[in-house]
Write a structure and sequence with these properties.
Elements lengths: L1 H23 L11 E8 L6 H20 L7 E8 L6 H12 L4 E2 L5 H14 L2 E4 L13 E3 L4 H14 L5 E7 L3 H16 L3 E8 L7 H9 L4 E4 L3 H13 L5 E4 L21 E4 L8 H13 L7 H20 L7 H11 L18 E2 L5 E2 L3 E6 L2 E4 L1
Parallel strand pairs: 1-2, 1-3, 3-4, 4-5, 6-7, 6-8, 8-9, 9-10
Antiparallel strand pairs: 10-13, 11-12, 13-14
């Protein structure tokens, strides 16, 4: 019995030695197995706003591929993971965010739409996940200190639209049609109305509708009866296309002016783009701009995605990935860091004095941020001519 105990003791000792060397590698430190920094994107990949979400994912992937092909960031590759939130302002947005976390997300480029973004900002704040949204423009999406925007805020878009219409004397009598059930639309509407007062614009009528509305005859007839020479549309392209069709059906042809939500009109299947002729909108990006950076991006995007012309959502996302890459390089972010540790560094760095990014969005101005999370950059106006966006 004693001999058996001695044998067992020796076996246990040998097992402990082997285990120690296997776990510790002898005298070597444990090696980090993480080889990629994971960036998550959520947006509407299906449904009525899918043009936006797919454009964001496509451009983000293009940027990631370019960066990795050039050696990554500080020698570390980036990885993009995606989830479909269907532009839902509730449970689907939360589920998409959780899905990205399950896929190892360390930095969040999302969400694409304001409603979905508002649904997750408190969760990203609780997780201390660095969040850079390419296109969620509601002022409230940057309420927490971990969230920043690449697109203009709604208040900026509304005020700038009123200013542009006034300074360029585009029309005297103006009507507005907006979605009272949507945070993006109502945010721009409210700031536009304030801007109209500031710039002495005469708003002859303001007409609202609710989500999923298809019949705009009442709103259009009210605008026509009020003698509106211009109809301001702070809405998305799907509803705008119906308004253009229904206005043409009653021979009502005012000028139409919108914001970035109208970007997508020309890509709607079955839509007669002649109905969009002369539509104006403020946007941070115009694909026909002749600077080298814009044309390089447009050419690469078209080559990667069946000759499709990128919209401003794609441009904002492309800038977004390169902004993140610049921050990662500057702050020495490594793949083994937690999302919270990364966030602690990036949320300070992005709004620090001296940090800026010269991208393809904005009218030739560098992008900068302050502690509010809002971006500072200049918009540009474009008009639709011969089925294309043309810078004004």
């Amino acid at each position: 019995m004693k001999n058996l105990k001695k044998v067992l003791a020796v076996l246990v000792a040998l097992t402990l030695v082997v285990t120690c060397f296997a776990a510790c590698g002898g005298n070597e430190e444990p090696k980090n197995e993480a080889k990629e920094i994971v960036i998550g994107v959520s947006g509407p990949l299906t449904g009525g706003a899918a043009q936006y979400g797919n454009a964001v994912v496509n451009a983000a992937q293009l940027a990631v591929d370019e960066i990795n092909a050039a050696g990554g960031v500080n020698g570390v590759n980036l990885k993009l993971v995606t989830a479909d939130d269907e532009a839902d302002p509730g449970d689907k947005a939360v589920s998409a965010y959780n899905s990205l976390k399950d896929q190892g997300m360390q930095i969040f480029l999302g969400t694409v739409t304001s409603g979905s973004c508002l649904a997750v900002i408190d969760k990203t704040s609780a997780d201390q996940m660095f969040q850079l949204t390419p296109s969620a423009s509601a002022d409230d999406v940057i309420a927490n200190d971990n969230t920043f925007q690449i697109c203009f805020t709604d208040s900026n878009q509304g005020t700038r639209s009123a200013q542009y219409i006034s300074e360029n004397k585009i029309a005297k009598k103006i009507a507005v049609i907006y979605d009272s059930s949507d945070a993006y639309s109502t945010g721009i509407y409210n700031s536009f109305m304030e801007g109209a007062k500031e710039y002495n614009l005469e708003v002859v009528t303001a007409q609202s509708f609710q989500k999923d509305n298809k019949d705009f005859s009442a709103q259009i007839n009210a605008c026509k009866a009020a003698g509106a020479e211009l109809v301001f549309l702070p809405i998305y392209y799907t509803e705008a296309s119906l308004i253009l069709q229904q206005a043409a059906a009653i021979d009502y042809a005012p000028k139409f002016f919108g914001c970035d939500g109208l970007d997508g009109l020309l890509a709607i299947k079955g839509f007669d783009t002649k109905l969009a002729e002369g539509v104006m909108l403020l946007t941070p990006f115009a694909a026909d701009k002749d600077d080298d950076a814009t044309q390089k991006f447009v050419a690469a995007y078209k080559a990667a995605y069946n000759d499709e012309i990128p919209n401003q959502f794609a441009a904002d996302a492309y800038d977004g990935i390169y902004i993140i890459a610049k921050l990662i390089e500057q702050e020495g972010i490594t793949a083994d860091m937690s999302a919270a540790d990364i966030c602690a560094k990036l949320k300070v760095a992005i709004c620090a004095d001296g940090f800026s990014y010269m991208g393809i969005t904005g009218a030739g101005s560098a992008l900068t941020w302050d502690a509010t999370g809002a971006v500072s950059k200049d918009p540009m106006a474009v008009i639709i001519k011969d089925g294309a966006y043309v810078a004004l």
